[in-house]
Write a structure and sequence with these properties.
There is one protein chain. The chain is α/β, with parallel strands linked by helices. It folds into three domains: 270 residues, 3-Layer(aba) Sandwich (Rossmann fold); 118 residues, Domain 2, N(10)-formyltetrahydrofolate synthetase (2-Layer Sandwich); 83 residues, Formyltetrahydrofolate synthetase, domain 3, CATH 3.10.410.10. A hairpin with a 2-residue loop joins strand 5 and strand 6. The relative contact order is 0.16.
């Protein structure tokens, strides 16, 4: 078997174009008022230019999602990049819109998020590591608010903050389970103000969610001001604006909020901006980035994190609701390997042909297809090709899709780049031309539905649970949110990405399972309610053998082990 080059080896040999040439492809002029270069191959678009785009017609929005993730891999980002390259190959102007990778997965278990093989965005090392510093800015803005809360209490507590009802934690962009619960002010001058605190990962921060749901700088500052930080001793909610924190936090974010432009290996434009996790947040890139791309191209390919039950559901129910966006079609990425895992095969046995297991695993794909159709959208299946996939296995998926009247395409972008997705690109163009009106799209639930009913509806309709449970504290808190004017907000369910259920070991398409709601949180700035299910953590831990163990600088001064 031929030895394949690693993603980082392929990326390192890429012939990148200067960023001004990439921007010229989407008619962004080579002027300082239009963009700010961040080195030779990355740029941030300026708001002076963005404001001129408002009257331009929108292109077609394509959402890329996937089946339920497995250790075998699905390749959603790779497919997104490859599809955008494929659309450009057939003469369509396309931009891929992705999230920025978090350092947590890059040094943990999942790896980076710049695609793979010959369907990548570059410069890969910069994108997967510090990139343009956006995540550092978000971390700093979040922790500035944390510092201002404790400082306010130290200097007399004019707002009468109840130290036992502070709901704003600290964050850092790294997996570190030791920081989930910490004791602060245990010594020194602040020892009279001891309390329990904790850290979330930056991508779970409400500041990240606000960053990705804001329309401009003014909207960002307004939303930050509405963050609930704590409750006073009379039970009244207190907000970031009560501490005058929204001004300085926005200052820290004023450069980060401008979308970043890079390129694919085929020198096509890519906008990479924002990055909330889909299992603990809403899992989509920024509204600003998506809307910008829609003004600058005919086809915008964007992804939502993890499987369609998480990322796509939140993209459609939260991002589309907030931003007024409607995708023309949805691509569901699947691999033969992952489908066989959903059919009961262990990872070590995936190299062998097993049509029986594949047929069993197709129940997972079918569930996701059914769910997407509930939003009135047209799904198309993209089979992300692996070398050991057999003709019988590929034909099995094609026959399955034919039987349920869903388009399907075998994609070889990992090995061939955009050339490997030409069939998928042509089929998507055809679907988009059929969908001239917006009337078929619908949200899963209406704004005026009770919060508990919204959670129940997602659990039953998307996860196929037959029971939703929560203790009285959770139910009382939801009523409290409603009584304080937040009942109209959408819900963001934090749940394991590895199953429709809350048990990551339940593959396929489980039914008759229970969704336990452990905790609910109000994100009043981002304007959604978070429902935390099962054992999901908003600060992940590292695996037994983290990716960090293999990452190093070689004798040539190059990074090794990043994937």
């Amino acid at each position: 078997m031929a030895k394949f080059k690693s993603d980082i080896e392929i990326a390192r040999k890429a012939k990148m174009s200067p960023i001004n040439k990439i921007l010229a492809k989407i008619k962004i002029p080579d002027k300082s008022s239009a963009f700010s270069p961040m080195g030779r191959h990355i740029a941030k678009i300026n708001f002076d230019f963005l404001n001129k785009l408002k009257k331009k017609k929108n292109g077609n929005l394509i959402l890329v999602t996937a089946i339920t993730p497995t250790p075998a891999g699905e390749g959603k980002t790779t497919t997104s990049v490859g599809l955008s390259d494929g659309l450009n190959k057939i003469g369509k102007k396309s931009i891929v819109c992705l999230r920025e990778p978090s350092l947590g997965p890059s040094f943990g278990m999942k790896g980076g998020a710049a695609g793979g093989g010959y369907a990548q965005v570059v410069p890969m090392e910069q994108i997967n590591l510090h990139f343009t510093g956006d995540f550092h800015a978000i971390t700093s803005a979040h922790n500035l608010l944390s510092a201002m809360i404790d400082n306010h209490i130290y200097w007399g507590n004019r707002l009468n903050i109840d130290e036992n009802k502070i709901v704003w934690k600290r964050v850092m962009d790294m997996n570190d389970r030791a920081l989930r619960f910490i004791d602060i002010n245990t010594n020194g001058v602040a020892k009279d103000f001891k309390r329990v605190d904790g850290f979330d990962i930056t991508v779970a921060s409400e500041v990240m969610a606000i960053f990705c749901l804001s329309n401009d700088l003014d909207d960002l500052e307004k939303k930050i001001g509405n963050i609930t930080i704590a409750y006073n001793k009379e039970g009244r909610p207190l907000y970031a604006k009560d501490l005058n924190a929204n001004g300085p936090m926005t200052v820290l974010l004023k450069e980060a909020i401008r979308p970043n432009v890079t390129q694919s290996l085929e020198n096509n434009p890519a906008i990479i901006h924002g990055g909330p996790f889909a299992n603990i947040a809403h899992g989509c890139n920024s509204v600003i980035a998506t809307k910008t791309a829609l003004k600058l191209s005919d086809y915008v390919v964007t992804e939502a994190g993890f499987g369609a039950d998480l990322g796509a559901e939140k993209f459609l129910n939260i991002k589309c609701r907030k931003a007024g966006l409607i995708p023309k079609c949805v691509v569901i990425v699947a691999t033969i390997r992952a489908l066989k895992m959903h059919g009961g095969i262990e990872k070590d046995n995936l190299k062998k042909e097993n049509v029986g297991a594949l047929k069993k695993g197709l129940i997972n794909l079918k569930r996701h297809i059914e769910n997407i159709k509930k939003f009135g959208l047209q799904p198309i299946v993209a089979i992300n090709h692996f070398e050991l996939d057999t003709n019988k296995e590929i034909k099995t998926v094609f026959n399955f899709c034919k039987d349920i009247k869903v388009e399907v395409s075998e994609c070889k972008h990992w090995a061939k780049g955009g050339k490997g997705t030409i069939d998928l690109a042509k089929k998507i163009v055809k679907i988009c031309k059929k969908k001239k009106n917006k009337s078929t799209f619908k949200f899963l639930y209406k704004d005026n539905l009770k919060l508990w009913d919204k959670i129940s509806l997602i659990a039953k309709e998307i996860y196929r649970a037959d029971k939703i449970t929560a203790n009285e504290d959770v139910k009382e808190k939801l009523k409290f949110f409603e009584n304080n004017g937040h009942g109209h907000l959408p819900v963001c369910i934090a749940k394991t990405q590895y199953s429709f259920s809350t048990d990551p070991k339940l593959k396929g398409a489980p039914i008759n399972h229970e969704i336990p709601i452990r905790e609910v949180r109000l994100s009043s700035g981002a304007e959604f309610i978070v429902a935390i299910c099962g054992s999901i953590m908003t600060m992940p831990g590292l695996p037994r053998v983290p990716a960090a163990n293999s990452i190093k600088i070689n004798k040539k001064g190059e990074t090794e082990g990043l994937f």
